[in-house]
Specification:
By secondary structure, the chain is mostly beta strands. It is built from three helices and 28 strands. It has a domain of about 250 residues: Beta-galactosidase, Chain A, domain 5, CATH 2.70.98.10.
Length: about 375
Amino acid sequence: MRRKELYVLLGLVLAMGCQPKEKKSAEYSELLPKREHFRDTIDGKPTDLFYLMNHHGMQAAITNYGGRVVSLIVPDKRGLPVDVVLGIESLSGYQNSTEAYFGALIGRVGNRIANGRFSVDGKEYQIPQNNGPNTLHGGLKGFHGVVWDAEQTSDSSLVLNYFSPDGEEGFPGNLEVRVVYSLTADNGLKIEYHAQTDQLTPVNLTNHAFFNLNGEGSGTINNHVLMVDADFITPVDQELIPFGELLSVEGTPFDFRTPVEIGARLDTTAHIQLSHGKGYDHNFVLNKSNSELTLVAKITGDKSGIVMSVYTQEPGLQFYGGNFMQSQNTLKSGAKDDFRTSFCLETQHFPDAPNQPSFPSILFGSGEVYQTVSEYRFGVISEL
């Protein structure tokens, strides 16, 4: 074969080799919601949708309305794109949703505060009660309901800033918050939280992504296999407020130290804590001895083979199994948010911490810097 013909043949082979990668990128982009559906103005501030990507088959769509992760697309065991986060296709859809927290940043205080009351330096504060008698996820208009200032610093990174003034939702002190979303080289969604204040105040930030590793709208998550490195949970009453005690997971449906299907022991009549939560909606006390970024949980989609590993510097992990989903909202895929078709693994400090002296404190004051990192890292297993 002549040299010229050889070069032509080599060029054809290389061109063919590039096609699948280009096709894969296009396939991923087709799953992303449209930016124009998120461009508007709320409270005098512009809203938008930002696209992130890395070079390893991962893309995300994040809106500055509530700092929400709208889509998170990763490859499954066959290399096909799967959107593993539940979301809604438009800004108006989020505003009208009966589920306030889809994919959102949560603050000032994630999880519950009993009776909406707490004390700081002997002064009692009353904040809005939006979950029965209690306050959930920052109140009526927590960080999930505000517009963040956004700056996309690279293809793979988005910086969000929000100033929460003294007295907002009843909390003391001016609070400046910065959250950085990044897609890492090892297919992780990394979330870095930073905050500063001028007054002693409680802060417990997290993200409330609803996951289904088989893909949004793909049915139950009860066949997902979960591992959580925790010897204890913080047991709760019927209002999901902790008693201030720890409960060993040994011999209970809360023992996920060895991987097990979520639904394998999901009988709400078999354990009082499952009855109180109508399933899993509990804080796991992580087996961490320091504040280093540590692998604390791993979960596998039974159909997709997608494995999500959770890393955090936080001491707790709230595992929620979708018990209160009622098919009232239409998702990006056109499916409804049906009962137990998604799960949340929220990295955070413990619920009701301001009222529980035995729990790690969430108070921090002037001159201190609140800083914590969590990461959801994705891979696949070859066989199930």
